[in-house]
Amino acid sequence: MAGGGELTGHGGYRLILLGPPNSGKGTQAGRIAERLGIPAISTGDMLRQAVAAGTELGRRVEEILASGELVDDATMAEVVRERLREGDTRPGFLLDGYPRTLPQAETLEAILGERGEELDAAVLVEVPEEELLARALGRGRDDDTEEVLRERFRVYREKTAPLVGYYEERDLLRRVDGDRPVPEVTSRIFHALGVADQGAARSGGAAAAAARPGSSGASGGSPVASGTLAAGGHGRAVGATGKEARKR
Ligand code: ADP
């Protein structure tokens, strides 16, 4: 349905970031959004802020958040609809933590549809569950016991993982190997989106490496958009950050 991987026909970026708990989505969302000049919208952060501020929404979701379960789809629809109305989303947005269920994905499609818009890509940050568990426990966060974590993974597998197929069918899915150093994951995400990456542009090496299929059990769909954006006028030199930690 959507234009098979042609990111930016409209010169913007409407993106979502998918991935299991602790996959580093939040970190990547900030880095990507900053370089693309779009807001990173974390529904988890929004809800936590609402709780902290003691708003009506905050009071409604407080217990749910504490329990680690998902806030209901109708409430999330309100939250996201309202947030996407704000002017800073005009050039695009990067949603982190939404959608998390199939009905939420349909809602997002509807919200965008009402504005005559559609999603450009769904980036899936893939990290093996055992690695995620090791990361979290290694961090020594006592709010995340192994049991709670396993439960969060279970919810992810049951409720959120089906979104992979949903976006695959729409030709929007971009798989990225998230089991890598942070700057390298960022670089791979840019590559998957067809956004010029300074380091990659310089050497050509990182882009080629990122394009190599099979590193993440990918279905071979990712390098579709290669170079589109790079060539496409979003030429505001993507990121002075230019970190491109060469890997092993
Ligand atoms: P994570 O720690 O996995 O990054 P988030 O910070 O995205 O989790 O979200 C924290 C909590 O906020 C979730 O466990 C859930 O209770 C609630 N939440 C956030 N986004 C959604 C959503 N799209 N649907 C339902 N609940 C959500």
Main features:
five-stranded parallel sheet, globular, disordered C terminus, 248 residues, disordered N terminus, binds adenosine-5'-diphosphate, 5 strands, alpha/beta
Q: Main beta sheet, described?
A: 5 strands, parallel
Instruction: Spell the H/E element sequence.
Output: EHEHHHEHEHHHEHHHH
Widest sheet: strand order? 2-3-1-4-5
Number of helix segments? 12
**Low-pLDDT segments, ≥5 res:** 1-6, 199-248
What structural class do you assign from the helix and strand content?
alpha/beta
Distance between the termini: 39 Å
Query: How big is the Rg?
Result: 18 Å
Q: In one word, what is the shape?
A: globular
Which molecules other than protein and nucleic acid are bound? adenosine-5'-diphosphate
| Count of distinct strands | 5
Question: Could you describe the 3D structure shown?
Answer:
- Helix 1 (25-36) crosses helix 9 (182-193) and helix 4 (73-84) runs parallel beside helix 5.
- The N and C termini lie far apart (39 Å).
- It contains twelve helices and five strands.
- The protein is globular.
- Strands 2-3-1-4-5 form a five-stranded parallel beta sheet, sandwiched between helices.
- With 248 residues, the protein is of the alpha/beta class.
- Mean pLDDT is 79; it is low at 1-6 and 199-248.
- The structure holds adenosine-5'-diphosphate (ADP).
How do the helices and strands line up, and which of them pair or pack?
Layout: E1 13-18, H1 25-36, E2 40-42, H2 43-53, H3 56-67, H4 73-84, E3 92-96, H5 102-114, E4 121-126, H6 129-138, H7 146-160, H8 162-169, E5 173-177, H9 182-193, H10 198-203, H11 205-211, H12 228-231
Parallel strand pairs: 1-3, 1-4, 2-3, 4-5
Helix pairs in contact: 1-9, 2-3, 4-5, 6-7, 9-11
